[in-house]
Each structure stands twice: as C-alpha cells, then as structure tokens.
Amino acid sequence: MRTTRPGSGTAVEAGMSPGDDPGRPGSPRAALVAAVLGFFVITVDVSGVNVALPAVRDDLGGSMSGLPWVVDSYTLMFAALMLSAGAFSDAVGARRAYGWGLGVFTLASLACGAAPTLGGLIAARAVQGSAAAVMVPASLALIRQTFSDPVERARGIALWTVGGAVAVAAGPVLGGLLTTEWSWRAVFCLNVPTGIAGFLALVRAARSPRRPVAFDLPGQVTAVLTLAALTFAVIEGGHDGFTRAVLAAVVVAVVCAVGFVAVEARRPRPMLPLELFRLRGVTVPVISGFALNAAFYGGVFVLSLFFQEQRGQSALSAGLMFVPMALITANVNYLSPRAVTRFGRRTVVVVGLLTVALGCGVLLPVDSGTPPWVTALLMIPLGIGGSLAMPALTSLMLDSVPAERAGTAAALLNTARQMGGAVSIAAFGALLAGDFTAGMREGLLSAACLLVVVALGAGALLPRRQGS
C-alpha cells in the first residue's frame, strides 16, 4: 500500500521505520538544494583535481603512471560501491544515506588536503570515492521521492545535472586559481564549506521512506575486484606492457566479472537485479552514460595535462581554457528537458552522443602550436553533447523503474558513468606514456568511434517519440 502526504509529492511505503515518519514537515526545495550541492561538490572534486595533478606530482613526487591513480582511486571506489550504495539508500532512506555520505566526504576532503605522501593522497581519495558512491544515488532518490509529478521531477533532475555542469565549469578554474595562488591542497579544502551548506539544506528536507534490502556481500566483493583489476591492467599495461602482473589482473577481472553475474542471478535479493537489463529504458542510459563519461572525463584529463605539460601554461590558465565550454554547457543542461518535450528523448539522446563524438573529432588536429582561443572553442561540442543527453538519459532511467527502485536505478546509471570515466582515464594515461600528442589523438579518436556506435544503437532501440 502506498500513501502520499498532501503537498509533499513524496510516496511513502507502508511498514517504514517510525524514525522516518512521513508526517514530518519538509521542504521540497531544500531537498533539491541539498541534492544539487552534493552533486556539485562531487563533480568539482574531479574536474578541479585534474588541473592540480602536475602540482601534486611536483610536491609529492611520483611518475606519469602514478597520476591516473589520484583520479582513478576516487572513481574506482565511486563506481564499485555505488550499486550497494543504491540499495543502502533504499534501505535506510535517501535523506539519511545522503547525510552520512556527505559527512564522510567532507572529512575525507580534509584528509586529502593534509596528505603527506602520494600514497596517502590516493588512500584518502579512495575514501572520498566511497562516500560519493553513497551520495549520488541517495541524491537522485531524494529527488525521485520528493517530486511525484514527472514534469517537476524532470526539472529537478535538470537542475541536478546543471549543478554538475557548473561544477565542471568551476572545477578547473577554481582548481587552477587555488593551485596557482595557494596550493593544490586548497582544492580539497574547498569542499568543506560546500559540504556544510549541503547539511544546512538537508536538515529542512522531509525524511525518506525505507525499504527492506539485504546487503549483497558476494556481489559487492566481486564488483570491487572486477573494477580494481581492470583499472590496474589498463594503467600498468600501458606503461609496462603485458607483464605477468598485468595478465594476472586481466584474468582476475574476467573471472570476477563472471562471478558477479552468477552471484546476482542466484541471489533472492541481489544488489543489481539482472532483470533490469531487459528494459530498454535501462540498457540505453547505462551504455550511453558509460560512453559519454569515457569521452568527457578522458578528454578533460588529457587536456588538463596537455595545457600544462605540453604548452607550459599555469594551472590557472589551464583552468580558464574550460570556461567557454562550461558556460555554454550549463545552459544547454537546463534546456535539455524542453528539447525532450519538443523533439522526444530518442532525438535528444542521439544528437547529444553524436555532438560529443564531433567534439572529440575536432580536437584531433590540436597540438602545441594551436592558438589557445581556438582550442577553447573546439572544446565546446565536447561539453554540449553530454549536457544535452544526460538529463534525458537520467529521467528515462528513473521513469523506467518503480519509485522504490529509484536508488538502485540511480546507482546503476552512475556506476556505468564512473566506470566509463575510470577506464578512459586509465587508458588515456597509458597512451600518454609514449608520444604525448599522438597518445592524446589516439584516445580522442577511440572515444569518437565508441560514441558513434552507441548513438546508432540508441537510435535503433529507443522509440521515435518518447518525450512525455
């Protein structure tokens, strides 16, 4: 049985914990603000850190092969734990799960800023990623449970994605400014005031319903081992070749991936119900989200290094290169729901994917002699396509599952996205081990080809008109 508290738009499940009394007054706007701030601080941490990587290496030491781990230790745990985090969000309530995740993330940010060694920084980044894994599905579930009307929910999701787009814009600039004027450590300390603001908004949000969920330890262990082994193989294989350690990692990744599927198929309450993949509204967002993040975050990673390592720009100057792309991206992100209403999800998703592919393609001729303003303009399509497609893909995903599965669905989508980012950063980092410019072009070309294939698949699977 389901009841809805008048005026809140929040569906409440029977049998929920007394501690989550749905009668507690709450502000839908406060819930949305809290969710947006959380996604903002998570995203700004990725984009800002990319610009600070050369300064981190100069201060803490390490090689080119070590730098991807500063990013991938975060994204690896982010991706690997998110499926369980989605179930955790459903079990304890989105509001409570989000609050716990935000608290750990803020403390881990302080630990990153105080890290004495590269290993310590990587470890603290892993804790950050674990907390972020809880925050993202909880924040989306908070929106899903707060806004029952599809139109209002689509607008809420659009604002949520705008928060990420603004973070992508602000991250490189703030990261470059803080690194240039103070230290790379200040980049992580920036998360603290944002985290506090998120807490202040969260306390005004209504409590969330709970759903009994069993923790899937075998599934979680096999998921972590699969992603960790795969990331290790890509990063180390690109630098050292197919050594015994790399080959062993590949074998571990394959065996654990097969084990994960077998475990999830047999468990009565898996953290990832495999039947979800029978829905086109799930498979298309998952595959498209992987491809979009692979192209975007791989591109941001390599371009951040390119501006500083190959062109000799400062961290601040490198960050400013992303401003034109980010300013336009933020506006397109907010306009995406209107485009879906007018043209349908199929058109918006396919056009978005192809636009990112175009963005990768037009960057292929860029080298150290290309004028900075030309490079900045050529980066714009890379951001426009993702900001056009992701709101449509996210709303498609959430509309395709029941409300009580919102946390799991959000976790699955964002797991795929983070996997795309982690694998692409590892791959781009490996390609840069030789000739930098040639490696950058190989990575961009590979991403463009992947996006074209995924766009063709999305066009074939989605109905011609699905905008409502």
Write the layout of secondary structure elements.
Blueprint: E1 2-4, E2 11-13, H1 28-60, H2 67-92, H3 94-113, H4 118-146, H5 150-181, H6 185-189, H7 191-202, H8 217-240, H9 244-266, H10 280-310, H11 315-320, H12 323-343, H13 345-362, H14 372-378, H15 380-399, H16 406-431, H17 436-461
Antiparallel strand pairs: 1-2
Helix pairs in contact: 1-2, 1-4, 1-5, 1-7, 1-10, 2-3, 2-4, 2-8, 2-16, 3-4, 3-7, 4-5, 4-16, 5-12, 5-15, 8-9, 8-16, 10-13, 10-15, 10-16, 10-17, 12-13, 12-15, 13-15, 13-17, 16-17
Number of separate domains? 3
Q: Name the average pLDDT.
A: 78
SS strand fraction = under 5%
Radius of gyration: 21 Å
Structure in words:
The chain folds into three domains: 25-210, Growth Hormone, Chain: A (Up-down Bundle), CATH 1.20.1250; 217-268; 275-467, MFS general substrate transporter like domains (Growth Hormone, Chain: A), CATH 1.20.1250. Helix content is 77%, strand content 1%. The chain is built from 17 helices and two strands. The protein has helices spanning 28-60, 67-92, 94-113, 118-146, 150-181, 185-189, 191-202, 217-240, 244-266, 280-310, 315-320, 323-343, 345-362, 372-378, 380-399, 406-431, 436-461, and strands spanning 2-4, 11-13. The chain has a two-stranded antiparallel sheet. α1 (28-60) runs antiparallel to α2 (67-92). The longest helix has 33 residues, at 28-60. InterPro entries: MFS, MFS_dom, MFS_trans_sf. It is found in: Cell membrane. It comes from Streptomyces spectabilis. One of its GO terms (molecular function) is transmembrane transporter activity.
